[in-house]
Design a protein that fits this description.
It catalyses: ATP + H2O = ADP + phosphate + H(+). It is built from 14 helices and nine strands. By secondary structure, the chain is an alpha/beta fold. Bound molecules: adenosine-5'-diphosphate.
Length: 334
């Protein structure tokens, strides 16, 4: 799995926190989601009630955690943070829920990875603001209802389809985050460069934006790596030359594919002749969970037109073959 990315050191974490926009106005791109969310929040504010639960879906690094923080900030409430993998027993969730104060925002990242019994407890908590605490064992076990103050759950998932329908249905609003356009990433980079005190030229920003996989987190990370390169080997300025040289060192290719993207495409072409090949077979070939291949690598490869999904499996496109510098064999399913 990719819970912790190796490139993410402490310095990166700190930088990431420092670069998070703090309000909807500072949040770049995602216009539809921003407008929808601001209506949900404004209406709740006017009613003086906690807003409906919010589900945010989309690939990693597109701003789900940031939006959860913004929801809390815009409501003037504090944010409590948890994650699906951390909630493996109903008791874990009961502890979190019972400590919530009125109006607080609870963020559960990777909400699709919660254990089943916890999931069922969450349905009830979301709908009735109640937790049934089971006391005792066997025939003598009784459920004691514990009433919760109204709160707002913000759930994040890499794909809303991964959520069981009963859970999905209890969110009053679902926002889908999509990859960012290059000009939006340039805007993110300009803002970040200013906050970091880095001199970034327009061409430097464009070069980094183009190769950031449509993802603000990656754009910010590459900005810091190019800054490193420029401070050590260049003039200190982040311009197009520095970006190109640094990204060569860090093996970020022309389209910004990362190691997982490339190994998926590579396996698809070299080992499976361009497909069609099933998701799980492809995942085994690259040593990853099918879920990771499907929700992290594929959306970007599909968007770039390098990979196609067909009913019979994944296929490499003509551009996919070309990107690896290969010619498709005769009869490849393009
Ligand atoms: P996710 O939770 O979807 O994995 P995050 O919210 O942690 O993504 O975002 C990763 C980083 O990218 C954040 O530190 C933030 O600085 C930056 N970021 C994400 N979305 C935006 C945006 N719309 N505008 C500016 N910066 C953003």
């Amino acid at each position: 799995g990719r819970l912790v990315e190796p490139a993410e050191d402490l310095d990166d974490r700190a930088a990431e926190a420092a670069l998070r926009p703090g309000s909807l106005d500072d949040f770049v791109g995602q216009r539809a989601v921003r407008e929808q969310l601001s209506l949900v929040l404004e209406a709740a504010r006017r009613r003086g009630r906690a807003p409906d639960h919010v589900l945010l879906s989309g690939p990693p690094g597109l701003g789900k955690t940031t939006l959860a923080m913004i929801v809390a900030a815009e409501l003037g409430q504090s944010l409590r943070i948890s994650s699906g993998p951390a909630i493996q027993h109903a008791g874990d969730l009961a502890a979190v829920l019972s400590s919530l104060e009125e109006g607080e925002v609870l963020f559960v990242d990777e909400v699709h990875r919660m254990a089943r019994p916890a999931e069922e407890m969450l349905y009830v908590a979301m709908e009735d603001f109640r937790v049934d605490v089971v006391v005792g064992k066997g025939a003598g076990a009784t459920a004691i209802p514990l009433h919760l103050p109204p709160f707002t759950l913000v759930g994040a998932t890499t794909r809303s389809g991964l959520l069981p329908a009963p859970l999905r249905d209890r969110f009053g609003f679902t926002g889908h985050l999509d990859f960012y356009a290059p000009d939006e990433l340039e805007q993110v980079l300009r803002r970040s460069a200013q906050l970091l005190g880095v001199e970034l030229t327009a061409a430097g920003g464009a070069e980094i934006a183009r190769r950031s996989r449509g993802t603000p987190r990656i754009a910010n990370r590459l900005l810091r790596r190019v800054r490193d390169w420029s401070q050590v080997r260049g003039t200190g300025v982040v311009d197009a030359d520095a970006a190109r040289a640094a990204l060569r060192v860090y093996e970020v290719d022309e389209l910004g594919l990362d190691r997982l993207d490339r190994s998926v495409l590579d396996a698809l072409c070299r080992r499976f002749g361009g497909g069609p090949v099933g998701l799980s077979t492809l995942a085994v070939a690259v040593g990853e969970e099918p879920d990771t291949v499907e929700t992290v690598a594929e959306p970007f490869l599909v968007r770039e037109g390098l990979l196609g999904r067909t009913p019979r499996g994944r296929v490499a496109t003509a551009d996919g073959w070309a990107h690896l510098g290969l010619r498709p064999p005769l009869g490849a399913p393009l």
